[in-house]
Give the backbone structure.
Amino acid sequence: MQGVLTGFAVIAVVVGIGYFLGRRGHLGKDGRTVLTGLAFNVATPALLFTTLAGADLTVIFSPRLLVTAAGTATAAAVFVVVGLLRGWGAGPVTIGALCSSYVNAGNLGIPIAVYVLGDASLVAPVLLFQQIVVTPLALTVLDLTRPGEPRPLRQRLTTPFRNPMAIGSLSGVTVAAVGWTVPQPALEPLTLIGNMSVPAVLLAFGMSLRGSGMPARGENRPAIILSAVLKTTVQPLVALGIGAGVLHLRGAALLDVAVTSALPAAQNLYTYASQYRVAERLARESILLSTIVSVPVLVTIAALLG
């Protein structure tokens, strides 16, 4: 339980600093845009590459992958169906589906895995699955549904391979798959740049909260509430059901899949929304609401299964 609170406290401090910077205007009127652009185009791709280049890809084929994939697909699919029926549009539906299923496995999942589960590597399956499968797929949809002139077929087909996030992920996976060790002089600059990713994302998210009220009070209220419920309730319940009922996981293994599935929506989803200029308010308020709600959910899971 203490690990859950510690992980949230670390994030809250950095987000609070971002809010203070935005309120005082220390980074200028374009500060948030610069931070999100830095995170999306440079820092996060570098972080993805350095993380995946040294990863053990065999963890992707563990039973945890099935739980992760099932929980992610279920929560995202429910939002997509509701969003399409309500006519929310391809961009907002994509962002909402991400907020309903994409867990904060990096900057929150790792400290919680250390303090609650005792092993940071336990979040590796969900990290790899999101970085290799979910992120490239979602960003490709956002690229293809951008307003503007229709693009040639060749350009559409190569969209996943021109996105900075996808390039970082796929390059790292390729290096890991062939077993190549990146020379240290080449890896160090990328590691240094990648270390900017999480702080930049959290600071930009904090700056975006300036002037905003409590979440889920505007026209996006149904979508925000739906995504938060799916993220903090449906996804962990699916994980528990499959973990206990299908895979017969017990004890620490069941706690692992339940905790990782109950993590709130990742702050970098706001970076995606901001970069593509679509559903920014939906992303910001969904992330904030799911983060608030996930605290008692995670504490309850840790108390019952820990």
User: Anything to note?
Assistant: Residues 108 and 291 are 10 Å apart (CA to CA). The chain has one domain: 2-305. The mean pLDDT is 83.
